[in-house]
Each structure stands twice: as C-alpha cells, then as structure tokens.
Design goal:
Length: 192
C-alpha cells in the first residue's frame, strides 16, 4: 500500500507530501518500508535553504568582516597583555586584561550579536543565524568566566571558560561548514 503524509519543513515553512510505501508484517501490522519521494523532498528543501543561506551570507558579510577585523585587533592586544616574564600575571596585568575584556571584547561581541539580530533573516537561513547567535552567547559566557577566574585566581572558572570557548569554536565551525557547503553547492552544475 501507499500512503501520503503531509509535512511542513520547519525553517523554510515548505509544505510537502511524502509518499510512503507500506508493507504488512507477519502479524498484519502495516509499517513504512521506504519513502518513495524522499530525494525529491530533500532536493526541494535543499534548494530553498541554499538560496536563503546565500542571501543571508551576502547581507551579513559586512557585519562579519567588520567584527572579525576588530576581533583580530583585540586578539593581538590580548596576546600582548598575556605575554609575561613571570609565572603569574601581575595585579596590574590582571587589571588591564580584565578591562580589555569587560570594556572592549565583550561589548564587541554583543555589538556583533545585536547587528546580526537586526537583519531580516530568510526562513531557510534561520538555522545559521541561530548558530551565529549561539556562538556569541557562548563567547560572552566564556569571557565572563575567564575574567572571574583571573580575578579570583580560580581554576574552576578558568576551566569553565576554556570549555565554553571550545563549544563556541565547535558551533562556529558548524557555521563555516554550512557556508562552505553552500558555496560548493552553488558551483556544482545541476544534472538532469
């Protein structure tokens, strides 16, 4: 037997009718054996998402570039402040690091997040937008724990900061993978 199941893809809000093949087992219960048009469904959704992601990448690129340049400058200053001759940073160094993080780094991340939130994001690119905002939240939390660990000389806070930083990098890598996939899919010719 064949059944039709109407589905709604969450991000693109695309309705699609899946055609499923049903087979009866030995006890007479019907179960799905395969989806006849699943590839068509994936192709439809993929094309819509890729189009929306391309639009989102174009509209967010200046924000990303501007903040990446700012972050590189801040990173250089942070490295300069954290390079030391003594085994532990001095009180003055800790204060300078804390000030850099609290008055420049965290506000910059918040600024990027705010500017990204102001964009009108196409439905198929909602996921990449959510991941970018999640990266920012994790980064802010990591820096907050770092400053607390530095101020209190608390290894647990520093370890939490490191863990959050790693999670932030993982989420950011997902964003990069989506962008890379989108770029590649635009260059692959459509085969009839």
């Amino acid at each position: 037997a064949t059944a039709e199941i109407d589905v709604l893809e969450e991000y693109t809000q695309t309705q699609f009718t899946l055609k499923v093949q049903l087979e009866a087992d030995d006890s007479g219960r019907w179960q799905v054996s395969y989806i006849k048009n699943y590839r068509d469904y994936l192709n439809t959704i993929n094309q819509l998402q890729n189009k929306d992601i391309a639009v989102y990448i174009d509209q967010s690129q200046k924000i990303i570039d501007d903040y990446n340049n700012l972050f590189l400058q801040q990173q250089a200053r942070f490295k300069k402040l954290t390079t030391r001759q003594e085994p532990l940073p001095s009180t003055a160094q800790r204060q300078q690091i804390k000030q850099l993080v609290e008055t420049e780094i965290i506000p910059a991340i918040e600024g990027r997040s705010h500017r990204l939130q102001e964009l009108t994001v196409p439905a198929g690119a909602q996921h990449i937008q959510e991941l970018r905002l999640q990266t920012d939240e994790l980064s802010i939390s990591a820096w907050t724990h770092f400053v607390a660990g530095l101020a209190m000389d608390d290894n647990a806070e520093l370890e939490t900061a490191e863990s959050l930083h790693k999670r932030s990098l993982e989420v950011d890598q997902k964003v990069s993978d989506i962008i890379k996939h989108n770029t590649i899919s635009k260059t692959i010719p459509e085969i009839p």
